[in-house]
Amino acid sequence: MAEVARSSRRFRVGERLELAVSAIAHGGESIARFDGWVFFVRYAIPGEQIIAEITQVGKSFHRADAVEIITPSPDRTRPRCQYFHPGGCGGCDFQHITLNRQRELKSQVITEQFKRVAKIDLSIPVAPVIGLAHENEPGFHYRTRLSLHINDDGRAGFHKARSHEVLPINECVVVAENLQLKEVLAKSYVGISQVHIPDQMRTEQVVIRGKSYQFQVSRESFWQGHVKAAEVLGQAALDILQPGSGERALDLYGGVGLFGKLLADYGAQVEIIESSESAVRDGIANLRDFPNARYHHGDVAQKIDEIDSADIVLLDPPRSGAEFEVLRKIATLDPRAICYISCDPASLARDCARLGELGYEIDSASAYDLFPQTAHIECVFSFRRVIS
In this predicted model, what pLDDT tens digit does every residue of 334-354 receive, in sequence order? Predict the structure, then answer.
């Protein structure tokens, strides 16, 4: 379909337009076009006809909120959260969409990003996560950590959508009940700008392949936000890498040792690289019973040069993905298998293309709905050396 030239029309914030919503965008907004201009719209669903109010005017695109639904999608549902509306909390993206349709849209985002960024045709379903305490309310009460912002009146809340303004809240329907959020929200705060939950060191317990593992996690250290994420991702990593006794394993961006501990428990000789001081401190404690695992504290792109061999590699980089030098070094190590865990399809697609250039092709691809009601997606890919 040919692009329509943008008109010279000038739009203003607060102006309302009737729009036909055509697709989903990476980041959770829907896409609509008007007079050749692209609009990124919150609170809409592809296929709907809506009245949108412009919230931001840009040089190449504009943003808007759906304020009236003329032709609703059959996948539209009533939001559970009282703060999910234009001008409300920006924490969730999809509470107006059924869970099945949320996952379909996320799958479309993965496909679009791989086609656009990597020129790879890829279609994978986004799988639901089962085994939650609230199976009668899937998609809610799953979040195990969060940061709250404090407004000028000392009340805690979240930022409004596309804003740094704090919206005080009384509840959050995606937060796990064991965090006792209502008690936190009932307090008044003075002299601080944020509250973190949990706010102290804790012990996380996961069960993988029928075996229980415990992890020390400091407040400053990263831990997956979904109550079942560590188990889902840990199981996926083991299924991909199939670590054998005595194999050399490299765990990059290793955090507090979730994957390193699993690999070490299966007998691999594990080298873990992590830049966070608190995560390394936690990880050393978590792996104290495994002499076959060793931490390297520092920037992954620099510390990886200390590694001279690896049979299997696992990397779980931040949203920005892995540095090219890291991928290049992995390829020179010539591992038999690579497991790449990603929370961003765009950077994952870029790195898949780079690994392809370095001689590794996608062997398997999975995606999990570890962030229901939001646009976030967790992917787990495996790579194998291309036989020439």
Answer: 999 999 999 999 999 999 999
Answer whether residue 124 is part of any domain.
no
- Segments forming the whole domain that contains residue 32: 16-76
Q: DSSP H helical segments within 129-228, as ranges?
A: 181-185
Q: What is the pLDDT of residues 244-257, one digit of tens each?
A: 999 999 999 999 99
Catalytic residues: 343
Q: Are 267 and 362 contained in the same domain?
A: yes
Residues in Cβ contact with 135 at an 8 Å cutoff, skipping those fewer than 6 apart: none
Q: Tell me, yes or no, whether 174 and 319 share the same domain.
A: no
Q: Domain check: are 168 and 263 in the same one?
A: no
C-alpha span between 239 and 262 (Å, rounded): 11
Distance, CA of 249 to CA of 106 (rounded, Å): 31
60: CATH? 2.40.50.140
Q: Residue 80's CB: how many other CB atoms inside 10 A?
A: 14
| pTM of the predicted structure, to 2 decimals | 0.94
CA separation for the pair 138, 147 (Å, rounded):
23
CATH code assigned at 313: 3.40.50.150
8-state DSSP, 387 = P
Distance CA 309, CA 290 (A): 20
> Tens digit of pLDDT for each residue in 78-134?
999 999 999 999 999 999 999 999 999 999 999 999 999 999 999 999 999 986 655
Q: Are residues 172 and 188 in the same domain?
A: yes
Domains identified in the chain, total number: 3
**186, 174 contact by CB (below 8 A):** no
Residue bearing tokens 């005017």: 57
